[in-house]
Amino acid sequence: MSQRDGGFSLVDLLVAIAVLGILASIGLVHAGQDRARAELDGAMRRLAVGLEQARRSAERDGKACALSLTEAGWQPPASADLSPCRGAGLALEEPLSRGVVRLDTNLPDPLRFSVNGLVLDGGMAVLSAPGSTVRPCLVVSLPLGVMRQGRYQQDPAAGLSSSHCLPKGRTS
Predict the structure, then answer these.
(1) Residue 134 lies in a domain
(2) Count of structural domains within the chain
(3) What is the Cα 118 distance to its own chain's centre?
(4) Rounded distance, CA 138 to CA 122, Å?
(5) pTM for the full predicted model
(6) CATH number at residue 93
(7) What number of other Cβ atoms are within 10 A of residue 120's Cβ?
(8) Dmax of the chain from CA atoms?
(9) Is 171 contained in some domain?
(10) Strands (E) located in the chain
(11) In this predicted model, what pLDDT tens digit does every residue of 67-111 receive, in sequence order?
């Protein structure tokens, strides 16, 4: 009878390490995509919340106001002609985010709100991030300032069109 060690051979260990490495890399790829999507969803919520806060601010205060949309988020307008809405200063990204959300917009600067809370200007915003093929979009339609959200189906660098912002789940 031959005596055999109860341990693993070098080949066994190398195969186990290779399999674990492959499984770990699959998890990291999906985790990066999930994180990018979560950051985009959060930024889109903040974009919509800023608009709603500004609308309510104008209506509640009984005076017209304005906001500017920048890569950082909703900011007070650079012009002193209109007072800033209460939504000013709302960042698009969470304080601990990686700072990778990209904003493409054709909303005017500043975006104006009337005394009764109507948005006086129309346009759209598209968000994107490296590692994600999803591009959430928000369209502000005139004359009532109705907002709708969806997924942008084209490259925003080619020019923005509200017809490419389709509801979630629809692809053309």
Answers:
(1) yes
(2) 1
(3) 24
(4) 11
(5) 0.74
(6) 3.55.40
(7) 15
(8) 96
(9) no
(10) 65-70, 73-75, 83-84, 102-105, 111-113, 123-128, 136-141, 146-152, 165-166
(11) 999 888 888 988 878 888 876 677 777 665 566 888 999 999 899
